[in-house]
Automatic annotation (TrEMBL), chains A, B:
Domain (Gfo/Idh/MocA-like oxidoreductase N-terminal) ranges: 3-116
Protein name: Gfo/Idh/MocA family oxidoreductase
InterPro entries: Gfo/Idh/MocA-like_OxRdtase_N, Gfo/Idh/MocA_oxidrdct_glycsds, NAD(P)-bd_dom_sf
MF annotations from Gene Ontology: nucleotide binding
Amino acid sequence: MPIRIAIVGYGKIAVDQHVPAIQGNSEYQLVAAVSPRPPQVPPPVPVYESVGAMLQAMPGGVDAIAVCTPPSARHPIVAEALAAGLHVLIEKPPAATLGEVEDMVRRAHAANRTLYAAWHAQHNDGVDDARDRLAGKTVTRFRIEWFEDVRKWHPGQDWIFAPGGFGVFDPGINALSISTSILPMPLFIRQAKLLVPANRQQPIAVSLDFGDNLSADFDFRERPDEHWVIEVDTADGEQLRLSEGGTRLAVNGAEVKVSGIGEYPSIYQHFAKLVAANQVEVDVDPLRIVADAFMAGSHQTTDAFDF
Amino acid sequence: MPIRIAIVGYGKIAVDQHVPAIQGNSEYQLVAAVSPRPPQVPPPVPVYESVGAMLQAMPGGVDAIAVCTPPSARHPIVAEALAAGLHVLIEKPPAATLGEVEDMVRRAHAANRTLYAAWHAQHNDGVDDARDRLAGKTVTRFRIEWFEDVRKWHPGQDWIFAPGGFGVFDPGINALSISTSILPMPLFIRQAKLLVPANRQQPIAVSLDFGDNLSADFDFRERPDEHWVIEVDTADGEQLRLSEGGTRLAVNGAEVKVSGIGEYPSIYQHFAKLVAANQVEVDVDPLRIVADAFMAGSHQTTDAFDF
């Protein structure tokens, strides 16, 4: 019996990634979509305005939902779905606050249902290999550079600079999710600098200092050299370089052949295993680092930004 | 055998509260103080410049430390003390970031030593009684008003408005620590507004919305009516009012006689029990709420502030 799954929040990420990953995995059957407004791309399944309307129309017909709404809308959706006995997969970042995430976890345990906070970047092909290579080693230098042009990747998406929108942490948290997953030691902020455009609420560029030669820079501003790179040097003289967001891995300058089934297929493969065991898997570390940066960091004003 | 304890960070709170609480409890012996600069009020025990210098001068002579430094200085001190086999009590808030707190907890478990994050406001005389009265009840309204004049209570303390200084969350987190301790349900932020003076980094006034008729206002600005009040209404028609920071409790308008030994004596009584069992007790909920407010809240600029 496949897992009958509905997608809640039928936007770009649902269409581009979730639908093909679900349709490409025989453990799932896509049965519905939930969207308060008619989706721009019509889904191949019935659309309901809310989770409640779907549950009423399809009693006993849905086993799980994948939540692809903006983070700040997720908590009530997840609470309702878990209370109705559904398993839940949530896109990254899991919610707008750590408190909401903790409450979701409590509810999942109380309902004895799966809650899986999927960090898609952790499922890139180079990540498992990097983690294996770093296990038990001493890191002597660690560096993230996550430079992407917000106009190119998020054209006109004003919400990303509104409260709860995360600003440049929206892509940056992907790098953090890889880092907390591969590093053999905990990662926590010592100092942070957040550059916030004069006309916005959320940072357009961030520098994070984790102490001990560990640092990260995220930048949303236009530049000639977009890149998404994580470098790790270890005490035994090895240098790992994850590039293109974690899809490529080089060791001491030489490309390593990595293989995998791709980010979203891997996410859904893992979710099926969790569902079979009613397991909860929620990694809050990346979101905790972001919250710490907001709390302890220095907030500086920079040039106004318009799309 | 009393617990031989040293105070690290010998400022106002150490002199006013920790020394008398330690000296008034026969389970403890105050044996040293640590201060990088000569303390303004000379302690009744030898002073060392660092924990390391103290450990070298008094090998095997110290069982525990009480850390009263500013939050951002604590992590390395706590790490060093735990590694040396000492038990650790830390003032509120436990650190500048959630990541540092988590790492301290890991280290305490690894060292099999007590780490106690003391929230002094939780030890006020009215708090236990309020918690007992609220157990198992449904809260229909919850309101914090924490209005104190920063010029009166923190004269000239510029650090409080610097990154990591917490601004009005410095007193406000005391209210949150009482709230998370007495409420029968979890508390997490839905919306937050942070007013930051144009010439400062940290908020001078904060509004927190926890949804469902639960809210808090913290204000550091001068006003005629300073007060520190928490009100809780329950579905059975009872209203609790904790006032004067939690020292007084009224139920349905009638003052309830509360008793206790006072904040800091109660903290040290509890710490002795934890030390006897090598237990770790770290409540991160108040700090998590503050981090969430910084991350998901709306940051607004208000009038410049000078002491």
